[in-house]
Amino acid sequence: MRQQRRQLATSRERAPSLTTRVGARAVGLLLLTAAATLTLAPPRPACAQRNAYQAEGEVERLLKDARAYYENLELESADEALSRAIGLGKRWGIRNRMMADTYILRGILVQVRDQNAQGAIADFIEALKIDERAKLDPMISNPSLERLFRRAERQLQDSPRPPDRRDERPPPDRRDEPPPPDPIRHRAPRVAKGGEVLPVAVEIKGELNQRLYRVYLFYRSARAEQVQRLEMLPKGQDAFKAEIPGRFVAGRSLSYYINVEDRRGQVIASVRSPRDPIEVPVEGDTLGDLDKIPSGEGLGEGGGWGDEDDKAARKYVSIGVSVGTGGGFITDLATPVNTKSTNISPGFAVTPFHTLLELDFWATEWLGLGAFARLQIVEWAHLEGGRLKFRVVDNKGHQLFLRAGGGVGRVRHLIDFGDVLDTTLEGPYFYTLGLRYLYNFSKYAGFAVTPDFLHMIGDSPSQQIDLNLGVIFSF
Fold first, then answer.
1. What pLDDT, on the 0 to 100 scale, is given for residue 302?
2. Could you give all domains of the chain from N- to C-terminal order, each with its CATH number?
3. What is each CA distance from 424 to 62, 375, 412, 463, in whole angstroms?
4. Which residues pair with 376 in a beta bridge?
5. In the prediction, which pLDDT does 1 show?
6. What CA–CA distance (Å, rounded) separates 358 from 432?
7. Per-residue pLDDT for 52 more than 80?
8. DSSP string of 179-225, one letter each residue
9. Is 20 exposed, middle or buried (0-12, 13-18, 19+ CB in 10 A)?
10. Whole-model pTM?
């Protein structure tokens, strides 16, 4: 009996209790839970970091798309891309130079499309808060945008604390007086009616008004294969107006800009630019789906407006072919070619027919240097020389040139002796003065009327007047 009790006590000492077994299982479960937590927890911050990088990449892509849309004048698409980029930036807390550029581009868009100066200033201020080194893009900037950007810089400097987020308007500029009014003012039409005349007006004041010589309106639409130029005429003391013909008011939109030029033909002021023209929607036109929307490369002739001086439309070489007739006053020094012993009385003699060939190179839009040859074929005679040419009028396809030059050669005059005809040769040196009227009936060709005066100098002097009619090709 004692031995059985001893064995039972020994077995109780060796067997674990129920409490001990339950405690062991609880500890094991806690260890498994901790291991699972350590295993699953690390991917979460890595995933968040990866999503932030993806957001920055998406913002960069949207900013690039917005710039392309803006250059192509697809302003609504640009606004949508910028709004998405700014939304991503706020969600993921992106505060870098790229986000500052996004706000700057949206500020430019707000001013250009909506003429909302306060909204543009608010976006510029936000860009400067993100990056104090933020600047306007010089390729799409203009004096009006630069003034707004400077106001944003001043307002940010004068503000002791960030503006209240509940009020999106920027704090008023209480330190500095408002900038002086622009010397050139223009209100763009809100909409144009397809096929109807579109009036465009601009107001120019102060010193700029005293310096200007001409004001030009450049425009293009679906029916304009190239940029059209129209001189704006004065209406009163400060106003200039022009009317775009109804046949050009077509397609989905019409784009234009205005240049103010001095007497040298230099642009001294402008309303917008070839790369940033004003776009007016066109309503009620049947060619709405066929509109040739201007690209970011511009609206100039040959596909683009080019740069500020419309260089895409400028011609560098011209070739002229003309036929003409004329006459001159010969002296008693003239000698008949066939009947040399016959005496000639001074007087007027004709030169029935000649051709004129010209080749000119244009150093600027108004100054050219060229060579020419005057050929009399029936009774052979020729002269050659060079000329300087000055363009003094250029208006709606009508151009006027002044010409001056000289060279060597002879002019043959017809002499009537009653029963016989003979000719004389005058020269061999000359200088010439003249002018040319040119009507451009196409992009590369025009009809020319050219009166020229030639003073022949040498062994047989004379004074000659020619009238030439021909065609001029320009490239």
1. 39
2. 44-158 (1.25.40.10), 184-307 (2.60.40.1930), 314-474 (2.40.160.20)
3. 80, 15, 5, 13
4. 381
5. 47
6. 14
7. no
8. PPPPSEE----S-EETTS-EEEEEEE-HHHHHH--EEEEEEE-TT-S
9. exposed
10. 0.41
